[in-house]
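User: Can you recover a sequence for this backbone? Please restate the input before giving your answer.

Assistant: Of course. Working from this structure:
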């Protein structure tokens, strides 16, 4: 019976499936997820550059879309709606990552991650993008033994203990490597700022 229902879903429009899902039809929602799962993941992966983050974002997008189904307007394309959720979640993830890394390297001023009352100017957006690019380059240039702990801690929020377990190192070594990586990044940014 379920196989027949699944094949029937293949010929139904997204909007009809979304309307059915909003009325409690879980099979209809499963069909929507199956239709857009690969596209959601690919989009998130392209924006984030990390498979695990992309999977998390894609999954969270479908959870949020499911919760918001009662508010979905079936006259709008469902595919565009779910993809806008994916893109917004990616932007949020990128902002969180940038804020964590900026604070970690001492290149953020208190409150700088808060949007201004009138929104960001194109100039401030460009400056922020350039800083983020410089930071990513600097982190990528670190030796592997320093890069891994800093990325795990600041980009993924892993604790010292979790990083130690992930890398098979004593926790004290992780702390030392994080400190060494931070010193290198601060020296590099200070040198670039003075030149």
């Amino acid at each position: 019976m379920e196989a027949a229902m699944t094949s029937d879903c293949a010929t139904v429009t997204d909007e009809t499936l979304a309307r059915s899902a909003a009325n409690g039809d879980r099979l209809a929602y499963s069909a929507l997820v199956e239709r857009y799962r690969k596209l959601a993941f690919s989009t998130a992966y392209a924006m984030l550059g990390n498979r695990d983050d992309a999977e998390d974002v894609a999954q969270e997008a479908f959870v949020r879309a499911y919760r918001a189904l009662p508010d979905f307007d079936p006259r709008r394309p469902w595919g565009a709606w779910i993809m806008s959720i994916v893109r917004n979640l990616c932007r949020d993830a990128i902002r969180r990552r940038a804020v964590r890394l900026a604070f970690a390297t001492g290149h953020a001023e208190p409150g700088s991650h808060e949007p201004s009352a009138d929104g960001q100017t194109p100039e401030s957006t460009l400056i922020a993008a350039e800083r983020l690019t410089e930071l990513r380059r600097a982190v990528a240039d670190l030796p592997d033994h320093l890069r891994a702990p800093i990325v795990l801690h600041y980009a993924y929020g892993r604790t010292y203990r979790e990083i130690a377990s992930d890398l098979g190192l004593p926790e004290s070594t992780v702390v030392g490597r994080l400190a060494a990586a931070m010193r290198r990044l601060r020296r590099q940014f200070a040198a670039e700022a003075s030149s």
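That completes the design. The two ends are 71 Å apart (CA to CA).
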